[in-house]
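Subject: two folds for Thursday's group meeting

Dear M.,

Sorry for the delay on this. The cluster queue was jammed most of the week, so I only got both jobs back this morning. I'm pasting them in the order they finished. Each block is the input sequence followed by the predicted structure tokens. Could you check whether the formatting survives your parser before we put anything on slides? The first protein is the one we discussed after the seminar.
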Amino acid sequence: MWKYLLVLAVLAVGILYATPNMYGRDPAIQISGTKGADADLSVLDQANKTLQTNNLPIKSAVLEEGQVLIRFKNVEDQLKAQDILRDTLSEDYISAINMSPAQPDWLKNIGANPMKLGLDLSGGVHFTMEVDMATAMGKALEQMEQDFKSDLRGEKLRYRTIRQVANSERIQVVMRSEEDKKAAERFLKNRYPGNVFVNDSSNDLAFFSSLSDLKKRELRDYAIKQNETIIRNRINQLGVAEPNVQRQGSERIIVQLPGVQDTARAKEILGATATLEFREVDERADTRTAAQGRVPAGSEVLYHKDGYPVVLKTRVILAGSHITGAQSGMDEYQRPQVSINLDSKGGAKMSAFTKRAVGKSMATVFIEYKPSGKVDAEGKALPPIKVEEVINVATIQSRLNNSFRITGIDNPAEAHNLSLLLRAGALVAPIQIVEERTVGPSLGQENIEAGMTAVVLGFAFVLAFMLMYYKGFGLVANLALAANLVMIIGVMSMISGATLTLPGIAGIVLTVGMAVDANVLIFERIREELADGRSPQQAVHHGYDSAFSTIFDANITTLIAAVILFSVGTGPIAGFAVTLAIGILTSMFTAIIGTRAVINAFIGGKRINKLSI
């Protein structure tokens, strides 16, 4: 009985989680605030009134988790609505078109969602983004320069200059005496084992330091991995459905946004790829003369988001990469604030600076890297254009550590936006789009239809063959094959990271043919047992038991190949491997346990003289 219940339970779960795929997807428009701000009821009302005024019918319009989702009956209405909303919505909001799952709420509430569709099936936008490794290396050298200065000051070792050598990846350290030079070199070698130190042949009191080849590789890997994670976080913060972000090669990241057809809006979604810095305000400077270009040495003029100039020291107190958490809220006077949490290294830097800077002003600088749109002779994108803006200036009230707060923010919405940006993280190095392409929804629909035709034809031919060749037992095998298809779809829908691609459909078609292999082995063994004179009951028992090891060995080798394909492959190859692996596991269950349960239900414990095989 427990085996019957197991088969029924597994089949029921498979059917339940495969059901959402029957409802399809609705053409939809998703409206969200820029840089992660929430949309509200006023945005929903404005969108509804605009569409009613233009006589555009909608299926539904709801506000969910800070985003407005408007569903349409067809793609034509969706595209017309997108053009209208783009012109009427303020710059504070982004509208993106996509295909939204249409399953009922009761299925959604139990986590039953349709399979995620890849770009080749749903249509969407594909970006190839290149990480500016030169800037990443430059920032690392700048940080090394600042660290050397603070470390030597902490050790009370006197130096003349510490600077980056022009057009090189080396830092030159010039000390005041031979004794200080030896002590400094010994101290820095112990503190920075990943660096290479060499003497300066032109100056007896100087030496050079640079990153080792291993450290450079680690820096490049870190820049790619960190940027990949942050891009994914920011896309998730903005609510783009089913994004795919993955590394390609040593300097590039692939971003796929299935269902999104508007490349301009998709670029806006990725436009939050920026970084933050905390810098000290140079209070010696006169902002009136600074605006004309006269600033003290070691300082520069940046402009506040409200338009007035702010003179900042060029030395960076803390980069945004040290921020581990941020939360918006209100201070004791009910003014907007953002609470910041730092990692241990960032906390130590902030503590060391603010210890001697109480009463001084510190600025939060928002830095955005905009693509230059130009390439060099080799076709490689030129470095992006750096745009800096002061978003906040605050007075340091006391010594800060791993936690502090930013005040002086204009309104709660701005505080909320800033906290979202900080939580998403700051990019280690700027990135820019070097390739973009769009797969239209009509092409995606053609791919789905072609794939479904292949599945249906393969399924039909296999059903016909099994029914004609194995008769009643062939009918049982066909039932198992149908259950196998349902379970593949159900499992694909349950796994959050699984995406159905066109090669994935090929994997399902292959699985349809492979799924009956186990039953062919079992049925042929039953025929052999019957030919040897065994009774029908004995023939079925020995047929299943004897064929199991052969079936297991054959499927486990294919499963190993699928796992290796998934491990080393990306994109279409991984999609094929996922469906193949799931199909192997489900087919073994349905072909061995499922068919035996059905056959046993009909002939178990009965006197039978002949089998329909």
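Second protein, same layout:
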Amino acid sequence: MSPNRRHAAFIASGAALALGLSAFPAFAVGQQASTGSTSGFTSTNALGSTSALTSTKPRETFHRLATYPVFQNAPAGTDPADETVAEISAVSEDGNTLIHTDAAARRIGFVDISDPGTPRGLGSLSLAELGSEHDEPTSVAVVGDYVLVVVDSSTSFTSPSGRLDVVDLATRTRVRSIDLGGQPDSIAITHDGARAVIAMENQRDEDVLADTGGGEEGDLPQAPAGFLQFVDLPGTDPEAWQTRPVALDVAALGAAGLDTPQDAEPEYVAINPSDTKVAVTLQENNGVAVLDVVTGELENVFSAGEVALEGVDVDDDGAIDQTGSTEAAPREPDAIGWVDDEHVATANEGDWKGGTRGWTVFEAATGDVVWDAGAELEELAVRVGLHNDDRAGKKGVEMEGLAVATLDGVRYAFVGSERSNFVAVYDVSDPASPRSVQVLATTNGPEGLLPVPSRNLLVVSSEEDSAEDGVRASVSVFGKGQRYLRGAAGTPAFPSIVSADARTEAGTAKPIGWTALGALSADPTKRDRLWTVTDAAMSPTSILSVSTAGQRGKNAGPAVIDREIVVTEDGSPVGLDAEGIWARPSVKGKPGGFWLGVEGATGPENALVRVSASGRVEERVSLPDDVADGLGKWGIEGVSGTVDRTGEHLFVALQRGLTSDDGVGGYARIGRYDVATGEWAWFGYPLSRPTADGDWVGLSEVTVVDRDTLAVIERDKLNGPAAKLKAVYTVDLPERDPRPGTVPVLRKHLAIDVLPALRATNGWTQEKLEGLTIGGDGRVYAVTDNDGVQDATGETVFLDLGKARKLFR
């Protein structure tokens, strides 16, 4: 049969294995029966509606426009692998030039964002060359034609020092340097440009005992205490600018119940909309102080208080268990912003004693809490697949950055998760009732959140940089509203897949936990349903149902994980490194269950695992000994199958070549397994050559196109701007099986270059394109594996690549 006719026959059946057989049952939440039905988002949870994740109204939505890796802006001759970060950012008054701190490289960087979709590096200014090799920028601001750079020049915790460098924005030359008398952290400028306030932290040494002796390393007090520097900025001549140090009243701090008031450590400053007050967080002291912005008089100081959490994951055990609780802990706020002239909001990152996984709105005059996020942000992280289980036993999502601004007449709070790599967007028009409206995926460690109201932009500076892992510090640019659609339908690129709610044993609604999706399969009969499975990043293993019903049309939204089946063996949940899944058709009216492709730590541990519809492991099929012995650490990466009059056959993709074959760089293997006879046949898949030193190319999925055509994902291990190969190829199987012991090499044909689709998200190009299937609706779907938010950005990209009939001709 010709390829077109073969494919037409397949499409007519609705799925590769439907063949008129009965559908899967309507699973509830598998073995975790206590979680009950998950028919959709619940109205009882503010984050449980799709509108809380992404607006379908273009005017109300933030769209990611660009992700710019700042290593590309390093001076000529710099090793691209050298660490370079983007921590805190400011923007020129015309909104076109971004300036960011780079403490790792002791410089500030300049980026042209006049076209926000195409940031362009403008070079950098070395602070080390202006001072010494110890000098690190901690914050940056712009007033008029000048950049104010706050520099930590300390060589000792006991003798802190720092300066304020005034840099001409046009010439990028320093025109004045002002001694600050201590170690600075953040800076804020009044809206009229008349004053600046600098938090002089004089930070503690985490490796020494407190001055009072005893306790643990890093405890306070550690002299000298911090203070504030007020800088008067009269006129346009920096030579006329003057500093005024303002100490914080120890007695007032103590009376307010702050921790170790004799060693105040200011962290972050913000100025209210009317330019009358400055608020400062004292993170290690767990407090907030409010001062008159002109006189520096202390108007109020209050403790940030404590929070106990219910319904959170507290164990870094691989499982996403949202039934835990934490004892009351200090908020220890980091960033702060004014919601209006009466209310301040804090991001409660925590330090060495606290952290409460959220953010809070306080009455500035009294310190009364008017709203607290509680566990809401952790639920949001779980829902969009950004839960970082490695941090579950510590401070969870760890909210660090916060900024408040008015864009298009709406007052927003932007709150950044340092450990789960996202920014939550809230409408704070009512300070007592913030409303979650969207989540924005970033690169690792978002810290600097910079709204640019005049241009309806949000710029996020992310500080984590690891060339070895292929994750680089970056500047991400988001634009609000229809002007930034650029032909899009109005739905943001992220999230492209989310989870619905399930019920816990206590009866509360919590989003289904998921991460690291490395495989896809069509449902045997349901046109708008797929199946996926979690890999070794999550334990126990979960098989997840994915609804694609709401992805297209006027009110399109993300795909929705709406059901969970926990895999069990011998009556207990089990963790498998499941890298492939195939949903079997029903057999004699009984649900067919699934075949999982499981990668092992060693060759012999690779296996095909048959699982019942309820998640029970029923059979394990090992690879032939000669194949298993030739595998290194790269094993099974995909499984698919067919059922016809000749029986049930499975197809398995091995990621790399065997040591017994033509080396690991020649060809990978695709195996066909006859379920009835237990016989294997093997075919070679010719791998493309790597394009960079240290790279490799391999297979990560296989799916059946028709009775003698397979589609596979072939990819490199590169990500970001270095990524070169993320593609779907097809191979036709020979009419006759190969002779035993032989491995004929197939011819491959490029069907889909997926790299443009991945880059069209305007985010960090993901490495692990790992799941592929043809749905019952005749469309080709793909998904990336987020590595469990470890050594990766954590973003999952779920793609509808188009009609299979057109793509697989």
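Two things I noticed about the second structure. Residues 59 and 482 are 5 Å apart (CA to CA). The first strand starts at residue 62 and ends at 69.

Cheers,
T.
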